[in-house]
């Protein structure tokens, strides 16, 4: 029986550990950035929904959905898709465009899912104000463009480093 062949990713050399740390940042940045973007958007959506649409009824469910499930799901999905399709493959303007389009596709699907679910639950205004959901698509594209600019341009990467990411 032969042992499986594998490549050691991190060795005991300090130089290799430093390279691995830098490399790890390249792959974790999309997850962190999209999680933060999703969390900020969901805080805004929760505040608007609570103040203008449904009030404080069933807040536990709304908070769990908007501040835990959605940011983790959207940030994880976008981080994984960005890593798989863009990181190490594209850089610059092309990567920014791809990021914006992927964000529109994935988070736009999340928005449509939320709209469909809210038709039943009535938490976030889909029944009384459906345009509130449909006007989000340009903002989703803009958030993807902003994230792509941060991830795939020299100036954006400098900003991420200055923010500690």
TrEMBL record:
Q: Transmembrane region positions? A: 31-53, 65-86, 95-115, 135-153
UniProtKB keywords: Membrane, Transmembrane, Transmembrane helix
Which top-level group of life is the source organism from? Eukaryota
Under which name does UniProt file this protein? Uncharacterized protein
Q: Which organism is it from?
A: Staphylotrichum longicolle
């Amino acid at each position: 029986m032969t042992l499986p062949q594998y490549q050691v990713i991190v060795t005991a050399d300090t130089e290799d550990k430093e390279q691995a740390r830098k490399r790890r940042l390249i792959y974790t940045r999309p997850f962190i950035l999209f999680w933060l973007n999703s969390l900020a958007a969901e805080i805004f959506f929760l505040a608007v929904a609570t103040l203008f649409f449904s009030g404080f009824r069933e807040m536990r469910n709304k908070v769990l959905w908007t501040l835990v499930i959605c940011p983790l799901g959207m940030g994880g999905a976008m981080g994984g898709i960005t890593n798989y399709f863009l990181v190490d493959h594209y850089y610059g303007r092309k990567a920014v465009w791809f990021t914006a389009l992927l964000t529109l596709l994935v988070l736009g699907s999340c928005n449509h899912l939320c709209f469909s679910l809210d038709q039943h639950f009535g938490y976030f205004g889909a029944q009384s104000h459906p345009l509130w959901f449909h006007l989000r698509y340009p903002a989703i594209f803009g958030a993807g463009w902003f994230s792509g600019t941060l991830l795939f341009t020299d100036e954006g990467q400098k900003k991420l480093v200055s923010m500690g990411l």
